[in-house]
Model the fold of this input.
Amino acid sequence: MVQAKTWILTKPFEGFPQHSDFELKVEELPEPKDGEVLLEAVFISVDPYMRLISSFSVNKGDVMIGTQVSKVIKSNNPTFPVGTHVVASCGWRTHTVCDGTGLVPIMPDWPQDVSLSLALGAIGMPGLTALYGIEEVLGLQKGETLLVNAAAGAVGSVVGQIAKIKGCKVVGSAGSDAKVAFLKELGFDAAFNYKTVGSLEEALKKASPEGYDCYFDNVGGPFSTVALQQMKNFGRIAVCGSISVYNDTTPQTGPYPYLTMIFKQIKMEGFMETRWGHKDPESLKRLMGWLKEGKLQGREHITKGFENVPAAFLGMLKGENIGKAVVAV
Ligand SMILES: NC(=O)c1ccc[n+]([C@@H]2O[C@H](COP(=O)([O-])OP(=O)(O)OC[C@H]3O[C@@H](n4cnc5c(N)ncnc54)[C@H](OP(=O)(O)O)[C@@H]3O)[C@@H](O)[C@H]2O)c1
Done:
């Protein structure tokens, strides 16, 4: 008999999530039946979407949603022998019994010197989001200028690096001086701390006086209202995330973008990376190739211990992470 530790929601989030919204519970798991496996969590991901999606998909007493890299430690399913590592959407739990549905094996030739935690970051969902946003949504071309916000985070840091690989000028915005220094290390052409610049409009103009061809938007809200004005005519905007509104209890209203979009003839497209799921195996190989060639860095912000998953989640929402926020169980 295995005991699984789980983090459940004590109540739906209201505004910014609190430690008291989570409770650690221990559950006895049954032995895996025919066709089933027992998974043990190795790395647990904490992501902004969990705040958003849990509002309408997680009820009081439910285990918090999320993905993890886990190891098969018992198996009655020949597709997933003992020792296999998988990406599993089984939430914040140390152990899980499941029948294998939805488990995604780590790519077969994953290099030994690359941490499996990157399967939750640069060589996983956030990396794919960056790649698809750039290639499928923006159609970024060599020589163009791209703006990305939350630029030092899991998605943003990969966006900037791919744009550099493609021969573009990259401007990044992030919420601390340490993050700005990191962006410069990554080769961003310009980076600024949006919390201290005073005028965002001036910072955007200074970084690219001629404006922006593409804007990869992770933040939304007032930032985007200002950024929209700095787009070039026929600019393209990939609406990836809107983290500045995820904790709102009352929806924000604001200046509406339509007139600027008309006069600048801007194209804006929201997307979810799952749209291109059929391309994932090939895309992950490309991301891994860039990593191995030294063109892509997969910086991570690792928190240790299953007991610290809520703290890691709250820290990520507060902007404490540089790179992908992950918990090493
Ligand atoms: N469409 C898709 O398929 C898809 C997939 C993955 C992620 N996303 C979205 O992409 C965005 C980035 O996700 P991620 O996983 O890469 O997270 P992340 O950037 O690693 O972490 C979140 C970051 O957001 C910033 N932030 C938090 N609150 C903010 C606020 N009120 N205003 C401005 N910035 C704030 C913080 O950075 P600063 O210190 O720089 O403020 C924080 O570090 C999120 O909006 C997420 O929902 C979308």
Remarks:
- The domain at 2-121+300-328 is CATH 3.90.180.10 (Quinone Oxidoreductase; Chain A, domain 1).
- The two ends are 20 Å apart (CA to CA).
- Residues 47-49, 126, 129, 150, 152-156, 174-176, 179, 218-219, 240-244, 271-273, 316-317, 319, 321, 325 surround NAP (CB under 6 Å).
- The first helix runs from residue 48 to 57.
